[in-house]
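User: quick one, sequence for these tokens?
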């Protein structure tokens, strides 16, 4: 069982995808047949990440019904490494974008996984182990170069001492 939606499921639920995006309940997600092949994201996220400057787009916004008819071919083109992101929405308004997972990584500035490695670019994990040169944060060292921060730190410590004395 996979954790991402199939092309057929996304195609059948495009109105629900838009409703989720409009209501802020849905974030960018990957979908595909057997592996993450494409990403659906809001047009706002695409725009905020400078997508219009990074990719060549068609002049028109694709309608919901039109995208439903084209989605299987669009994903087929993505599998072959072809195609540009497609802006789509209702009533000619740009509301969402469908693009390849590689294009989504490029949009975000993320690294690409090694060839053949299954990877969902909308789900990220980060190493949380300290690096070999890590050391604990020293508040005095951190505040040393900023008089305002130094003053705040001194005030906090004075308050803590006063509270510790029971006054």
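Assistant:
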């Amino acid at each position: 069982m996979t954790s991402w939606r199939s092309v057929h499921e996304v195609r059948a639920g495009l109105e629900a995808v838009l409703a989720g995006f409009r209501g802020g309940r849905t974030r960018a997600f990957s979908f595909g047949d057997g592996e993450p092949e494409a990403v659906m994201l809001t047009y706002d996220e695409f725009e905020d990440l400078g997508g219009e400057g990074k990719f060549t787009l068609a002049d028109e916004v694709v309608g919901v019904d039109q995208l439903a008819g084209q989605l299987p071919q669009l994903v087929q083109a993505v599998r072959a490494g072809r195609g540009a992101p497609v802006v789509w929405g209702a009533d000619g308004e740009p509301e969402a974008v469908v693009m390849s997972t590689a294009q989504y990584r490029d949009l975000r500035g993320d690294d690409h996984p090694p060839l053949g490695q299954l990877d969902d670019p909308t789900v990220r994990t980060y190493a949380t182990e300290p690096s070999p040169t890590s050391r604990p944060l020293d508040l005095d060292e951190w505040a040393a170069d900023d008089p305002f921060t130094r003053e705040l730190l001194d005030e906090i410590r004075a308050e803590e001492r006063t509270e510790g004395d029971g006054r």
